[in-house]
Each structure stands twice: as C-alpha cells, then as structure tokens.
Write a structure and sequence with these properties.
The chain is an alpha+beta fold. It is about 20% helix and about 25% strand. Bound molecules: copper (II) ion (CU). This is lytic cellulose monooxygenase (C4-dehydrogenating).
Length: about 350
Amino acid sequence: MYSIPLVTAVLVTVSLVAGHGQVNRITSGSASNAGPNQYWAGDSANSKTATRVMYKASGPAYVLFDGFADNSQMSCEGSAKSPAPKTFTVAAGNEIDVYWEGATSELKGKSGTGSLAAYNPWVHAMGFVFDYISSCHGDCTTFDATNAGWTKIAHAGIDTGQTISNALRETMKNKPEEYFPTSGPGLWAMAKLVQNGSKWTIRVPKTLKSGQYIIRHELAAVHNPKTSDPSSGPQLYIACIQVDVTNGGDTSLPTGTQAKDLYRPDGAFANIDVTSLTASFFNVAIPGPAIWDSSSSLLSPRDSNAEASVANTSFNTTEKTARTKTKACKERRSTIKHAAAGRAHRSSLPCVHRKNRLA
Ligand SMILES: [Cu+2]
C-alpha cells in the first residue's frame, strides 16, 4: 500500500512536470465528475472518471498542425482507443460545465482569472473553443472513437462586442503572452473562459435522442503563430467527455466529420497570426464545420476538409495578408520559453508586439 508521504511526494512531482492543462472536473446541476489524473495511474479518480485521458506534458502536450490530418491524434488526444471507465449522465437540453486546470501556476492568484483559488487557472487567453459530439453507437466505455463522425454543436472565436478585462489584459502582458488585440474590443473565447474561472459551458441539444455520446470539447490556443519551427502554430487541447443523455428527443446526429477532416494542416486556421488580424476577420473566421441546428439529422456531412467549406473570401484574403506580415516579421521574431514544461510550451514575441512595447 502507499504510505501518505509517498503519495504526497508523487503529487508534488506531478505539479512540477505537468504540461499545459487538463479537465479538472465536469458538473451539471449538483452532479460532478473529476477528470482523470494522467500522471498517476493509482489516483482513485481514474476509475470513476467520464473524461478520457489527455496528453501529458512530456512528449506531445497538444495537437499541432502536423497532426490535424491524423484521426488518432485529433479524435481524443491519443485516447481514441482508450475509453474512460464511466459516463456522465445529463438530460437533453441541460448544460455541462467543464472546468479546466492549468498544469503550471503561471496565472495562479493573478487578477482577471475569476478568483480561482483552489487550483491553477487555464494559462492561455487567445483562442477558439469548439464543441463537437459523436454517438458511441452503444457503450462509450468500450467505444473506439478513431473514425468517429463529429458534429459541431457550438463554437466561439472572438467577440467584437466585448472587451477583455483590464485585469486579465495586464496579467497576460506579464506572462509574457501579450493579448491581441492589444487595445479595444475583441474578447477571445479563451479569455472568456479564463475570466469565468477557467469554466466553459456546453448545452446538450434538447432534440438529441437519448443514448451515449462523446462530447469532444476543444480549446485551440493561437498565441504562438506558425513559423518554420514545427512546434509553432495553433495548439489543440482536446477533452473527450463520455455522456449518457437522458430524456432526449427524436433526433439522431448527422454522419458528422471525421476528426482528421476538421481543419487543414496548411489552411487559414493553421496559419492564423493573432498579431495581424483585423476585427472584421473575427466575425466570420471560425474554423471547422458549421454548427448543427439540431432540428434534423439531415445536415450533409462535409466531403473532406470542412474548414474549406466554411472559410469565405474574407478568411482567405486575411490569410494572405497575415502570411505576408509574418514573413516580414520573421527575422525580428524571438521565441521565449515561458514555462518549465519543456520544448512544447513556447511563446513567440512578434515584431508587432515589440513595437507596441516600445511605443
Ligand atoms: Cu500551453
């Protein structure tokens, strides 16, 4: 048996080597279910969790653009074939709150993080949040999600009608992972998550048939624009949450899009440069398939590369501009290692950023 001092030692080690973050717990009403402890197999939470194991800090800590076309990475961060042991019961039409926990203490106790005191807040403030769902065609605890078809039920990019709090803007300036846009309106979904105590709310479609499903809840951090460095570009953090939907309606999910076809490895999303984009861009450019309206199963599945179907002219034009600017900036760009998490956790300091600093 483990003695208490040994357990304590293990936990301390975990907090030092941990990567970018994972699900702390999910809740719905008064029900709560803890996320897995991927660093210690002996944790009792692991036999009760409905959330599949996410990447550890060592090795890949998230999915990069070179993994976008790979179902095994994109479905559930390597857990496509490794189900969680439980499902979380939720009634159709109800909400699930997902609480993220940062693996490093960079934002612990910092202002603008929603007074989260019990554990580390999520550490990035620029990026999209996507929610997809797939049927488990039966029991989620034995379901191989590798080739699952995913249906998007929600997404959020940047809200130009809202502004990041001054507190979080200042906090991110010191991280250093300065927030863009550097002034004025433009609230990234990920900043909203951090401000809300690292919480994101997902509503299960009311019309959805009862049964077991996986919710593929994805954070896409865009603070490190793509360069020639293969570890740069958007970082996808994918939590697969197994739910048992009760009191459902009559509607089955559409076929959905396989995870490898959600975003193109060479597409506008992979090349997004958060330092160069205009406010008008953000109103339209949310990557991935359209949101299912949940009133019928007839949404036609995308043939392939769903991102291309959604991206409109504005998206592509902006992409070109962003690329040109990125090239011009490249030589003045410096990369800063901003956490103890190793090679994977880097933050770029583009020329725009530096100019703003000097001004
Ligand atoms: Cu990170």
